[in-house]
Amino acid sequence: MSKLQELINRLCPNGVPFIKLGNFIDIHTGEQFNKRDMNETGSYPVMNGGVTPSGFIEVSNEQANTITISQGGASAGFVAWQSTPFWCGAHCYVVRPITDQLVNRYLFFFLKNSEKTLQQMQHGAGIPALNRDKIKNLVIPVPPIEVQEEIVKILDRFAEYAAELQAELQARKEQYEYYRNLLLTFNPSAYGCGTDGEQKMNDVTIWGGYSYEISWKTMGEIMEISRGASPRPIQSFLTEDENGVPWIKIGDISPDSKYVTKTAQKITSEGASKSRYLKRGDFILSNSMSFGRPYILDLDGCIHDGWVSLRNFQESYIPDFLYHLLKSDSVQTFWTQNAGQGGAVSNLNADIIRKTPVPVPPIELQEKIVAILDRFETLVNDLTNGLPAEIAAVKEQYEYYRDKLLTFKEKSA
What we know:
The protein has a five-stranded mixed β-sheet with strand order 12-21-18-19-15. A five-stranded mixed β-sheet has the order 13-16-14-20-17. 34% of the residues lie in helices and 21% in strands. With 413 residues, it is of the alpha+beta class. The chain is elongated, with a radius of gyration of 27 Å. The model is unreliable at 188-208 (pLDDT under 50). It contains twelve helices and 22 strands.
């Protein structure tokens, strides 16, 4: 018999009282802090209506080990545990027990378990909000303190293990990104090219003394770069015919994906003739939201004007090397610095991509680099095995036991 079950059998064999939460807690919002006075880093996070901090400042108005609930915005109802002192904004609830019958951390797990219910209680046609009375009206089972503390110990072990796995995964990602940037950095400015448009052949000694000639080009010189196109109105060209042409939308693709393998919608051949038709093996880049993410097509299909296509690069690159190159810091930084120039909205247009300076190593070297980076990427991103799958399994197990451990028989009056 587990210690928890022994405690329940001994201390509350006939059930536990269920009490309206408002009788046990203090709930209040904080004070708004002006966004312009926040920094990207600092001593104390500013918690407001979102999931992550709005910024950082050098003062706090709440103590560590405090429960917060997002009060306004799309994430209203999101429950979090603040392990450090912080600034509570006007769109953030602080929830704290006001009785010695309720363990603070037990209350957090109960509220986290009720998060979906709270989010469904949002109101307001414009910006959603959560009324504090909705939180107060939740009914919480209140077992003896010893039982609450044992539940907290069990759930904290799950949370700590998940945090350790997440930290290891983050370290692996950083390691992967470090080696990707290291292997794909050929320092064009050091050889008098790349920064002034001059193109030269350069000997670069890497990997045990082997010498490789690296030529520098702009992307526009070595591939065909085109913006997508949408047949309008798109609704008139959508079809459920299984022989229709795949219609590739940004929402169809996971950010962690490498390949586009299927689409949710298809369009007619007439619609395809008015769009940008691509073939398996071509690349696409998002040119607005989260711009610059590369994907390789594993199907033939059409793209709308939110994409830019890259084609006919095979003489210069093997596809997997180009994929890693486009994700490297040097390329992504160039795009970030140039996108949005002349306007308020960042937009990675085809002209910026054409002007991007890139190294063109020999195919032999590309294959060696790809072999190393593919091993890292598989370790980090493969959702069928490795750390991401283990994290997902632990999270599912944690949520299952959290719900199970917080389910009690109600004690009759």
